[in-house]
Write a structure and sequence with these properties.
Length: 434
């Protein structure tokens, strides 16, 4: 975890104090259930809640000797509870505590991430409607293609992050499971009703069948989902980076008063936030492969997954939380330049309307092959002139084109509004009836 890319609410979930608090609740709730079943005295269960406490430093000191974190924790709690502490951890194994705790932490982290996405969606939607009909050039292969609107770019992002949200909800449901099933998962020394009780108290589902650990395919799917969300963040960030290039400059990150863009060049206004988001997305995706490799554990359990999850649990969620918040800020304050968008649209002498002329020629009886040839031979002249020539005027002067289309018909094919007649339809699909 890097403090520079961390936010306090998410960090708090992974602090040792929070982790041990969850451990304590798991043990105390399990002891409550055992007391109700008559396995341990009710007075012991009550004493654990009343006297139970722990100190992170003391746990660390004990672990340094015993080389086992759960035993160190139980020993420290027992120092506070006294004699009734012997009834803690009855029939349980370490993974019951560790895996259930991780499920709680990931569920809580996911709730923050879902709230992050909701804020991002709200901002994207506002910008989409703000620029619903702001003309912009659509590009394929980085080359001018046909007109779009900047609002459509935002609507596309909204739809993508809506899918991200749905996937994250499903990932939360998959990973938020409780296992209190004892050694090798057979419930030999603990009643399944204890697991049901703990799961209910912690807001988790029960794991249908655990070995000695919760199956790691659940976690693999969870971290893969975070990786997909990170890629969606990068996709929007890269779009903004391209739009901010000097030669394009259709949009740019907000540049605050007093901000400096370069230590050497005072004129620079760099897309530093979106470049940062690209880097953070790489880090979140980097945790996906280790999570996938955690699935294949030996027999009923080994701990090869443990060290991995001590990294990927905190780091992936903390980094993604920061990235989502940063992207929300970028979109919220994004500077959009409609005049520059129009200038870029007009830059290539009307080439962006070539398809409409092609289709009009075919409708007028010209074969598709001939129509393509006629439009392309004029379009290449405009291309090679760097847009100083007009495609419309060249087409009107071309006798083969003029034989099929009148000047008025050619001019009509260069109407920009034609390309936006279904924007409302797309917005209805993305945002619902408005």
């Amino acid at each position: 975890m890097v403090p520079r890319y961390s936010r306090p609410d998410m960090v708090a979930i992974w602090e040792p104090e929070s982790k041990f608090r969850i451990w304590f609740e798991i043990e105390a709730h399990a002891t409550d259930a055992l007391a109700e079943l008559g396995v341990v005295p009710k007075e012991a269960a009550k004493a654990i809640w009343e006297k139970g406490a722990f100190e992170v430093d003391r746990i660390d000191a004990i672990e340094a000797e015993v080389k086992h974190d759960v035993i160190a924790f139980l020993t420290n709690v027992a120092e506070h509870v006294g004699e009734p502490a012997r009834f803690m951890h009855q029939g349980m194994t370490s993974s019951d505590v560790l895996d259930t705790c991780l499920a709680v932490q990931l569920a809580r982290a996911t709730d923050i991430l879902l709230a992050d996405i909701d804020k991002l969606l709200e901002v994207i939607k506002r910008r989409a409607f703000e620029h619903k009909l702001t003309p912009s050039i659509g590009r394929s292969h980085g080359i001018h293609a046909e007109p779009v609107t900047f609002g459509l770019k935002m609507a596309e992002a909204y739809a993508e992050f809506s899918r991200c949200r749905s996937r994250l909800e499903q990932a939360r449901a998959e990973v938020a499971t409780c296992a209190i099933s004892g050694a090798v998962g057979t419930f030999a020394n603990i009643d399944p009703r204890v697991e049901e009780h703990v799961a209910k108290k912690l807001g988790l589902a029960i794991e249908p069948v655990s070995t000695q650990v919760i199956p790691r395919d659940r976690h693999a799917m969870y971290f893969a989902t975070l990786g997909v969300i990170a890629s969606s963040i990068e996709r929007l960030a890269v779009e903004i980076r391209h739009l901010q290039r000097t030669e394009v400059l259709e949009a740019e990150e907000y540049f605050s008063p007093g901000q400096k863009g370069s230590s050497a060049m005072p004129h620079k206004r760099n897309p530093v936030l979106t470049e940062n988001l690209t880097g953070l997305a790489r880090m979140v995706r980097a945790y996906v492969t280790p999570a996938l490799e955690n699935v294949a554990l030996w027999h009923e359990r080994d701990i090869s997954h443990s060290s991995v999850e001590r990294y990927v649990g905190p780091d992936a969620t903390i980094t993604l939380d920061f990235a989502l918040a940063r992207l929300t800020g970028v979109i919220d304050k994004l500077l959009v330049y409609p005049e520059r968008m129009q200038k870029n649209l007009d830059r290539m002498g009307g080439l962006v309307h070539s398809q409409r002329v092609l289709l009009a020629l075919t409708q007028a009886g010209v074969s598709r092959e001939d129509a393509y040839r006629l439009v392309q031979r004029n379009a290449m002249k405009v291309w090679e002139s760097d847009g100083t020539l007009s495609l419309m005027e060249l087409l009107k002067a071309d006798p083969d084109v003029a034989a099929a289309l009148s000047a008025e018909e050619i001019e009509e094919k260069f109407n920009l509004d034609y390309h936006f007649k279904h924007v409302d339809t797309i917005f209805d699909r993305v945002f619902g009836s408005h």
